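sanity check this chain:
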Amino acid sequence: MTMIRHMNKKVWLIAAAYCAMLFACWSGAATTQNRDAFPLKDGDTWVMAGDSITAQHLHSNYLEAYCYARFPKWTFHFRNSGVGGNTIPTLLARFDWDVAAWEPTVVSVELGMNDQVAGVPTNYVIGMKKLTDLTRELNARPILISSSPVDDGSMPGEWTGERCKKIHFFTEALNELGKKENIQVIDQYHPLLYIWGKNKMFQNASAVAASVRRLKPTENGPEFDILQAFAKSWEGKPAGVSFGPDNVHVAGAGQVTMAATILMALNVEREVSSATIKPDGTIVAAEGCKIDKVGSNNGKLSFTRLDERSPWPMTEDLASALQLMPGIADLSRYMLTIPGLPNGQYRVTMDGTLVATLNSQELAKGWNMSTVVEGPLGARAKNILALLSQLQGKPINTNWRDASKEKDEAKLAAAQQAIDACEAKVQTACQPAPIRFEIEPVK
């Protein structure tokens, strides 16, 4: 009974928090658009400094993959400078050889998870200001990113754990620093707190319902009846998405929502490409792509599409992340529109692989293909993310950093060669390739 009442209380809190979040996101986005353009430019080197959450090279790699796909003709470099357990003092101690040595033009600092354990917001802000000053001395652009939340079920204004509560005050202080010093600050904590907290509520409610269903039918009484009614009412409801491996170092869908939140705050260009084709093969419009080899026969429409750039490379983690954050799809508007099809269901294949079954209304409205994780898009995404994992992990990334710390020029040159070779593979993998589409009615 206590658990049920607590969940009802949370429903009201969620509604209030949701309204507040929508307003905050809207007003925050407007401020970002007026003040800050997307920080990456052709020729840039972006160093991503942080603690173990950055050192996971998961959400940071997703962000990097987005940039490679969106700007395939540019030459730029991402460098992961995350170290487990790091705080501002430990990052300051290694700044020269593990940040400045990369000769960055952009430096993002994502700290707070460990700083709040033994520190206070005042010292945190002083340290972030020092890191900003050091970055500006390099003629690089500073970006300060708040810590992600602890995935403990906390919600805005109702913290389950003390650690998550502390991060709230650290993030508030960081936002104030950004306003005062005209530094770009990305608050990922508060948007994610709501998304992750709601997800945890669904996980908890589903677990309660499952436990009730296991109760012996011989048990009775008013509380048993209430629990049974709750379990029945929860049938078909969302079960929540498991992040793992722990509530600090989330993985999978949790990392996708982190990357998406940061990209949204960075004011990215969301349009990839779009094409509108009639069922008879007439090309109505093609923006950012080339359509050729068009055929229309016995109700089947086929064509080849070559895009100038590609949607965000995503694997299966995207599907579960979309349950939590549907706006992820809008970060890559990769559109196909086919108006005028006879009513019915249609199979869509890419290079011979079935990737979707859609109705004529969905195709007429415009289908955003960025959520496809099968076929050539899925294969390309897996290849790109695997290469980025090599580039930012052991031994390629760590060899360079070890050589830099040791000031060993020979080792540094060898490590740089390995980085250059891997980056060349990433660049090749991200070049758009033609895709053969076939759309035919389901029989």
Notes: The CA atoms of residues 215 and 224 lie 9 Å apart.
